[in-house]
Amino acid sequence: MMNDVTIVKKIFAIFVVGILMIGFFMAFTQMPKANAVNVNDTVSRFYVMKDVDQATQMLDKGTYFNKNMVPLRNDVPYTPITFGKSANLEDGAANVVTSIVVDYRGFDTLGEVTVLFLAASGVMLVLHGEKRKVQKKKTPPSEIMYVGTRIAFAVIFLFGIYVFIHGHLTPGGGFPGGAIIASGILGLFLGKQGYSPNKAGLTIFESLSGMAYVIIGIIGLVAEHSFLANFLPTGTIGDLFSAGFIALIYIAIGMKVGSELSAVTNAMITDTEED
Amino acid sequence: MIDFLQNWIYLIGSMALVGIGLYIVLTNTHIFRIIVGLNIIDSGTNLFIVTIAWHPKSVMPIYTATNNLVVNGHVISADPLPQSLVLTAIVIGLGTTALALAIAVKIYQKYGTLDVRKIKEEDR
Lengths: 275, 124
Prior knowledge:
The complex is a heterodimer of chains A (275) and B (124).
Chain A: H1 4-26, E1 50-51, H2 52-61, H3 96-104, H4 106-126, H5 143-165, H6 174-191, H7 199-223, H8 246-270
Chain B: H1 2-27, H2 31-51, E1 70-71, E2 74-75, H3 80-111, H4 116-123
Antiparallel strand pairs in B: 1-2
C-alpha cells in the first residue's frame, strides 16, 4: 500500500530528521582543536588535555571560576596518585567512574535502583494473573542443550560475581554483573521445556539486597556525618580490599539487579502466548 | 580523512543513531517498531553524552599499573562524570523498555494486533 500519501509522509519525515540532525551538528562544528583549549570554557570535551599547572595558577589567581563563584575546597594541594602506592585517599577506587557512581553520587544510585525495582514490579503487575500456558516449541531442547546450558550457567554466574566484586578495580560493576547473571538464567530457559526459577527465592534475594543497600547507608549516617558516607578505611589504591564500602554496595546492587532481571525474564517468557 | 574520522566518527555516529531512531518512530505504526526506534534514540543520546567527554588521545579513567591519568601535569583521561551519568541512563532505559514491552504484550492479547491504526478502528 505505497500510495502517494505514504511516500509524501516519508519524505516529510526524512526532511524533518535531516533538519534536526544538521541543527545538532552545527552546534558542534565550531569546536577548537585539542591544543588550543581555553580552560575557561565549561563544555566537558575541554576537560581533556587540560593543563593542571595552568589550572592551579588560575585557581590561585581566582580567574578559574566565574566572578561570583567560589571554589569549594581550594586549600587542598594537588598530589599525584600512583597505582599500588597511594594510600588513605578520599575514595580509594581505581575506577573513577565507580567512585563517582557509588560514593559521591550514591544517593542517586539508590534512586536508580528504585526506578529499576519499580519497572520490574510494573512488568510483573501487568503480566500477572495469566493462566500458565504450556510452551510448545517446535523442536524441544535436546540432552546436549540441557547439560550444556547448565555448565555454561555455572561459568556465567561466576563471571557475573567476578564483575561486580571487582567493580572498583576494573570496568563493570553491579549493573553489568547482574545483567550477566540474568543472561545465564535466560540460558536455563532455553535448555529445558517449562523451566521456572524459584520465584520465592528471587523475591527474598531481591528484598534482602535492597535492604542491605539502605542499611549500609544508615550505618554511614550513624558512624559518619551523612547518609551513604564511606565508613570503612579506603586502603591502598588497586587492592581488592580498598575503596571502603564500594564493594559491599556493588555486591548488593549486583544481587538485586540479577534477581530482578531474572524475575522480569520469567514473567515475560512464561506469560507470552506462542502460536 | 583519517584524522577527521578519528575526531568525529562517534559524534557523527550518535547523530546518525538519533536520526535513524527518529525516522523509525515517525514513520511506523507498529508498536514494537516504535519501541525499537525509541531504544535506538536512547543509544544515540548515550553515545553522544559519552562522546563529548572523549578525545582521540585520551585514555580510560581507570587507574591501572600501566595507565596513568595524569602525565607531565596534563590530565589525559576521558571525563568520568558523563560516563557515570550514562550508566544511570542505560539502566533506566532498560527498565522503561521492559515495562513498554509488557504493556505491548497486553495490547496484543486484547486486540490481536499491534498496529496503532487497527487498534483505533477497533475502539470505535
